[in-house]
Every structure is written in structure tokens, then in C-alpha cells.
């Protein structure tokens, strides 16, 4: 961090954490020590307005103890000593009465203190460290590693000039990928064709040569329809497949059931558009698929749908090639301090090992979507006590049930910036320091071969008695009698031990240069040493790191666990085709979670300046659906599902596919996930079907 003095002010360079991109910016601090201005984040309202949250009047600044009923919001201020002693005592009591695994350790946002929290969980003896990745990102990574042996890079901010066709699948850069409107997918590019798959006509879809406006949840059928036409027309890279495909014959047999007329009917799109899109993608090489890390897997069959999609890169010979979809390689990484090896080798099974063994094999955490079952029903294992940071019930499908579960815990402690429906169920609430108030060692994954390592120094003293989450967990480790394992409560020492995994020159520059250090994957040198100067197609030297060493069209690993080895398509568990009996009451398809650059999930919704951009929780409806219900833009409406009812404001817009209602997420006062289904999780990943359900929308009567 650099500091520049200007008479009575000081300018410090630091990194933002309104998302996990960790962008560099300058903060101006006045003579009293108050931050008064941020500069260097010109296209990001979250970053520009972060001081609104820093000094928000409702921010939690002192440890609190519940004195009223759970959910009442009645708390009193206590000392840190009392708070930490109380938490440590309850953790020990639960361990003595029920065993250490009955204590859960949950990490939501922010992510920076996860190494310290996971270390605390495993040193305490609990395998049950859980994160928001139980419904975000991890399923795509697991699907890709299972299929290719590598994670794919699918939404890079770095454009390949060689890409001649991009298939954008359920992502919208101007709302979700920094630098938003300046992202390379947010404009037309000379010589680059674009196909967009999305139930909404987003800003990205407006740029497309072809927009396939599918029914939510039918992504797998569409992908298999692409495969059908590619093989039918001989557009596949057969020589590559002959050498590197496992189970191709079974796959080719399976896709015969997905001719264009059937796929068009399932997805609700034009057969002609489908055929044109497949030809454009398959014959305009190199071609790339750009996907969200989350949206395609938040369905009851999302894992297999995603596998069908990513196999398009293999079939067309665009896997790990410049202009196609590159492998996502590890770069220089800090030393692990999480004690996950202890978890794997010495501790009992994690929550989810019992029902989602593929997911837990590849992901270093327990499956958090099972927490309500664990708390309320004791299955697949009991959870009695919870220590959490940045938790919000809005993250769980059927959120009211998760709220009920938190209220049923024997003991629940949480750190956060503000109260939310989860903190109101807590026994102890701790004030968390913001990114301006805390240090962190950041290893940003970046792109296929290139990443960044940064060390953020503290820019401001914490307000009130707020503490960095990582500091809290180290102090709890000390309270629990593990001072040596937790650096005697010294947070800087924990970052320094992590930094021992970095080469000396990188570590030194990361500490001294706010912009950080660019680091590269060693596979580049390996490719060059083997004579491959184009630095792609690393499968030429390493093959595919799967069970067979090949691309898994018919996965032997999935079959060994009783799943379909092929990327089979199944209708969403709740849909016009699978549950027609529900259509009388719930005739619309419900989807949710379209991203906006103004909000990070439930964050920033309490910032008045941010709400000026988008002040109300909205449900988007096609004009035909709205007219049939007497609904106009701005009307208060009820969105109902089989789980409950939530009020939104109507946004009548022809960007929506007829028959589909889209709700924006993250609003505590209008939480769409009170309507979503927690009973039909994806059978492989455990992800909830946030994005393909059924609902009805009705105008709220005046008065």
C-alpha cells in the first residue's frame, strides 16, 4: 500500500472487495482519519459507493448478546472478552455432548478469512466447514474436472483476438463481469459472431447474431441438440475425438434422441434458429463458450446439463486452444493453512459425503445446502451449534425453513457488517471489519495461465470495536487452548505463514506494491520445454487428468457412484412438462438471479445511493403475461409458488420470454428464495433449483 500526503489529507492505494476481483483504487483520508473519497473504479458503482457502507449508520460496531426471543432483534452490547468466552464455552459444550462434528463453521461473504475459519474447524475436530459454494460456482468446477480433468476458463476478462464465434450461455457481462459495460462481451467485435442463450433478451442478447430464448432449465436438452446436429452434419473434429474421447459411441447413440424438432419444442425456440445457431458455432472456428460460473448448474439437473454444454468444446476441437476454451491452471499459490489434509485423513465424513460423494471428493468443504436438514432432522448428520461469518438465509432455497433451522440451533454466533434475517436468530453477533479495515493475502486466479498475488495493508482503523473475521477466528483458537496453532492470535503472522509458499521475490513485491504481482502457471514452461511454442493444448503432454486419461463423454467415475455416466437430460423437477398438475395454480415458469452491477447478492441493498439505481425488488413479466393478469409496470404484485408468497414490484418488459417470470434476488424484504425448492437438489452436486420452477403472479388489491 502506498500513501501520498496532501496537506491535511492522505491518499492510500489499496484493493477493493465489493466483489472478488480485488481491483486497485485510491482512498483519500482526511486529517481525522476518515475516508472521504475513492478513485480508480470508474465503471463500478459498488466500488465507488463503498464509503456509504463504511459509514452507514446501521453498521454493527460492537459485540452483541441476544436478550429477547430469537428473531426479535433484541440485543445488548457486551465486551469482546464476554463474547469470545461465551462462544468458546458453547463450542466445547457441544463437542462434549455431541462430538465435534455437531459444530458447523460457515463462511459466506467475505471470503478472505476462509483459511483461518477452516483451520479453526478442523483443529477443533469438526469436518463440517461449509461455504456459500454449496450453491455457487463449485458445481461447474466439479463437472469440468470430472469431464476434462481441469477447470475451464469460460468468462475471462481477457479477450482472445482469435475467437471467431462466441456462444454466450446464460451470462450477461454488463451486469455481472467487471468491467461490466467495458467487458469484451458487452460490444460487437469485428470478425466475431455471437450466439446468446438466455430466457431474457439481455444487453448481451441484443448484440447477438442469434438469440436462443430458451425455457429455464432446458439447457441440457439444447446442448444435446447441438451435439445431434454437429454429428449429423459431420462438423465434429473426429480425429481429435478418436484419440481423446472416452465413451463416444454411447454418447452418439444417446444424442439421437435429441433431433432439432424435439429440442425446439422442449426449449420453446424456433427450429430454424436452433439449426442456424449450431451451424454458426460448429463451422466458425475457433469458437468459445462463455458461461456463468453458476447459472447453468442451479437446476435440479444442472450438473449433467453443464457437462453436455462443456462437451461442445471437445466435439468441435476447441478445447484448450487459443480462441476456444482454455484450461484454467494453478499459478503460484500461497501455502495452505486450512488443515484440510487433517480433515480428509483424520476426521469423520463431512456433511454431504453421504449423499453427494462426487461433489465432496472434488470440493474441500461440506455441502451447506443440507444444513436445514441437519439442524431440523438430524440428517445426514446432526448439527447443534454454528459459528458463521457473512451468513444470510436468503442464500438457501425455501429460506424460511433455513431461518427456522437457525432458530432451532442450541447455539449460533455470527460476524457481519449489518443485521439480516440470519443474524436476528443468533445468540452472539460480532462486528466485522471491512476490507478498508483489514489486511489480507490475495491470490486472484485471473485467467488461463496468468494470475495475481497481492497483499492488502490496512487503510483505515476499524470503526467502533469491529475486528477482521480472521482475527476473530484466531482469537477463538487461542480461547480454545490452541494458541500455538493460531499464531497466538496474530493475524499478520497467519498471512506471513501463507506467504511462505511464495517465492521470495514475489512475496516481497506483493507486500510492497499495492498493484500486486502478476504470476504465471508453470505449465507454460513445460509446454515450451517440450517444443510446443503455441502454449496451448497441454493435453498433448499431460493428457486429460480424468479417471481414463481421456475426455469423459460417458464418465466411469459417475457410473461407479451409481449416476448416469452420460450427460443425460431430465426435465426440471417442477416444470410445465414434469408437473402439469401444478399448472392450474402456478402457470408461469419462475427463474431468478439475473445479475446487476449495483449489488453483490444481498449486499449494498441498504445503501441509499445504490438504491437510486434500482430502488425496488422487481419481477419481470412479458407484456402478454402481464396483460392477462391486469398488471402494469410499478404495480405491487404477489409472486406465489408451492412454498409461499413474496411481494415484488412489476416490471413489464418484452425482454422476457412469454410464460416466464424473473425475480431479482438478494432483497431481504422481498426474498425470492422463500419461493424456491429445497427438496429437489441436484443429485450429484446438491445445488438447489433456483432458476427453473413454477409460480403465479397476481396484482395486489389496492388498500
Automatic annotation (TrEMBL):
Cross-referenced Pfam families: Molybdopterin, Molydop_binding
Keyword Nucleus: no
Domain Molybdopterin dinucleotide-binding: 593-692
PROSITE patterns, A to Z: MOLYBDOPTERIN_PROK_3
Domain Molybdopterin oxidoreductase as annotated: residue spans: 59-476
UniProt cofactor(s): Mo-bis(molybdopterin guanine dinucleotide)
CDD domains in alphabetical order: MopB_CT_Acetylene-hydratase
Listed InterPro entries: Asp_de-COase-like_dom_sf (IPR009010), MopB_CT_Acetylene-hydratase (IPR037949), MoPterin_dinucl-bd_dom (IPR006657), Mopterin_OxRdtase (IPR006656), Mopterin_OxRdtase_prok_CS (IPR006655), Prok_Mopterin_Oxidored (IPR050612)
Alphabetical UniProt keywords: Iron, Iron-sulfur, Metal-binding, Molybdenum, Oxidoreductase
Segment forming the signal sequence: none
The keyword Oxidoreductase belongs to this UniProt entry's keyword annotation: yes
Annotated PANTHER family: OXIDOREDUCTASE YYAE-RELATED (PTHR43742:SF6), TRIMETHYLAMINE-N-OXIDE REDUCTASE (PTHR43742)
Family, similarity comment: Belongs to the prokaryotic molybdopterin-containing oxidoreductase family.
Stated name of the protein: Molybdopterin-dependent oxidoreductase
Source organism (scientific name): Thiothrix lacustris
Amino acid at each position: 500500500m502506498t500513501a501520498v500526503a496532501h496537506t491535511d489529507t492522505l491518499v492510500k492505494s489499496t484493493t477493493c472487495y465489493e466483489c472478488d476481483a480485488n481491483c486497485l483504487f485510491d482512498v483519500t483520508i482526511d486529517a481525522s482519519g476518515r475516508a472521504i473519497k475513492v478513485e480508480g473504479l470508474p465503471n463500478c458503482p459498488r466500488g465507488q459507493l463503498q464509503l456509504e457502507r463504511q459509514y452507514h449508520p446501521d453498521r454493527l460496531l460492537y459485540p452483541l448478546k441476544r436478550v429477547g426471543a430469537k428473531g426479535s432483534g433484541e440485543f445488548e452490547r457486551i465486551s469482546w472478552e464476554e463474547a469470545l468466552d461465551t462462544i468458546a464455552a458453547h463450542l466445547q459444550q457441544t463437542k462434549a455432548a455431541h462430538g465435534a462434528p455437531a459444530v458447523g463453521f460457515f463462511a459466506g461473504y467475505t471470503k478472505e478469512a476462509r483459511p483461518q475459519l477452516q483451520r479453526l474447524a478442523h483443529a477443533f475436530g469438526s469436518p463440517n466447514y461449509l461455504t456459500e459454494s454449496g450453491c455457487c460456482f463449485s458445481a461447474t468446477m466439479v463437472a469440468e474436472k470430472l469431464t476434462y480433468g481441469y477447470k475451464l476458463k469460460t468468462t475471462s476478462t481477457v479477450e482472445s483476438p482469435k475467437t471467431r464465434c462466441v456462444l454466450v450461455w446464460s451470462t450477461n457481462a454488463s451486469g455481472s463481469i467487471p468491467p461490466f459495460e467495458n467487458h469484451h462481451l458487452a460490444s460487437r467485435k469485428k470478425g466475431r459472431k455471437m450466439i446468446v442463450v438466455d430466457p431474457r433478451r439481455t444487453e448481451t442478447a441484443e448484440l447477438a447474431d442469434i438469440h436462443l430464448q430458451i425455457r429455464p432449465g432446458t439447457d441440457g436438452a439444447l446442448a444435446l441438440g447441438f451435439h445431434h446436429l454437429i454429428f449429423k452434419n459431420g462438423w465434429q473434429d473426429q480425429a481429435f475425438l478418436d484419440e481423446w474421447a472416452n465413451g463416444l459411441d454411447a454418447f452418439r447413440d444417446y444424442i439421437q434422441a435429441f433431433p432439432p424438432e424435439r429440442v425446439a419444442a422442449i426449449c420453446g425456440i424456433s427450429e430454424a434458429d436452433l439449426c442456424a445457431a449450431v451451424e454458426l458455432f460448429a463451422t466458425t472456428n475457433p469458437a468459445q463458450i462463455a458461461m456463468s460460473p453458476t447459472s447453468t448448474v442451479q437446476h435440479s439437473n444442472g450438473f449433467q446439463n453443464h457437462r453436455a454444454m462443456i462437451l461442445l468444446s471437445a466435439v468441435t476441437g476447441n478445447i484448450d486452444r487459443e480462441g476456444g476454451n482454455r484450461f484454467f491452471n494453478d499459478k503460484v499459490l500461497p501455502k495452505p493453512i486450512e488443515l484440510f489434509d487433517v480433515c480428509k485423513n483424520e476426521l469423520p465424513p463431512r456433511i454431504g459425503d453421504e449423499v453427494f460423494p462426487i461433489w465432496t471428493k472434488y470440493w474441500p468443504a461440506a455441502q451447506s445446502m443440507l444444513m436445514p436438514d441437519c439442524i431440523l432432522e438430524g440428517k445426514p448428520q446432526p448439527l447443534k451449534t454454528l459459528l458463521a461469518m457473512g451468513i444470510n438465509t436468503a442464500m438457501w432455497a425455501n429460506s424460511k425453513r433455513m431461518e427456522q433451522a437457525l432458530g432451532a440451533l442450541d447455539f449460533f454466533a455470527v460476524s457481519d457488517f449489518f443485521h439480516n434475517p440470519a443474524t436476528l436468530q443468533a445468540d452472539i453477533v460480532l462486528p466485522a471489519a471491512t476490507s478498508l479495515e483489514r489486511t489480507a493475502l490475495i491470490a486472484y486466479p485471473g485467467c488461463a495461465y496468468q494470475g495475481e498475488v497481492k497483499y492488502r495493508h490496512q487503510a483505515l482503523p476499524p470503526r467502533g470495536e469491529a475486528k477482521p473475521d480472521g482475527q476473530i477466528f484466531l482469537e477463538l483458537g487461542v480461547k480454545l487452548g490452541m494458541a500455538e496453532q493460531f499464531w497466538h492470535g496474530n493475524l499478520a503472522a497467519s498471512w506471513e505463514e501463507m506467504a511462505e509458499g511464495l517465492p521470495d521475490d514475489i512475496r516481497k513485491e506483493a507486500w510492497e506494491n499495492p498493484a500486486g504481482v502478476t504470476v504465471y502457471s508453470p505449465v507454460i514452461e513445460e509446454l515450451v520445454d517440450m517444443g510446443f511454442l503455441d502454449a496451448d493444448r497441454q493435453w498433448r503432454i499431460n493428457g486429460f487428468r480424468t479417471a481414463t486419461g481421456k475426455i469423459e463423454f460417458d464418465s466411469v467415475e459417475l457410473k461407479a457412484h451409481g449416476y448416469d455416466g452420460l450427460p443425460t437430460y431430465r426435465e426440471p423437477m417442477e416444470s410445465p412438462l414434469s408437473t402439469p398438475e401444478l399448472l392450474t395454480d402456478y402457470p408461469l415458469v419462475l427463474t431468478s438471479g439475473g445479475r446487476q452491477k449495483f449489488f453483490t447478492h444481498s449486499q449494498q441493498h441498504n445503501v441509499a445511493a445504490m438504491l437510486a439505481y434500482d430502488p425496488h425488488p422487481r419481477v419481470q413479466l412479458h407484456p402478454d403475461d402481464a396483460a392477462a393478469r391486469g398488471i402494469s409496470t410499478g404495480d405491487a404484485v404477489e409472486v406465489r409458488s408451492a412454498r409461499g408468497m413474496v411481494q415484488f414490484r412489476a416490471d413489464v418488459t418484452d425482454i422476457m420470454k412469454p410464460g416466464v417470470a424473473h425475480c431479482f434476488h438478494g432483497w431481504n424484504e422481498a426474498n425470492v428464495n422463500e419461493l424456491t425448492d429445497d427438496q429437489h437438489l441436484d443429485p450429484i452436486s446438491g445445488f438447489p433449483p433456483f432458476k427453473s420452477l413454477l409460480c403465479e403472479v397476481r396484482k395486489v388489491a389496492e388498500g
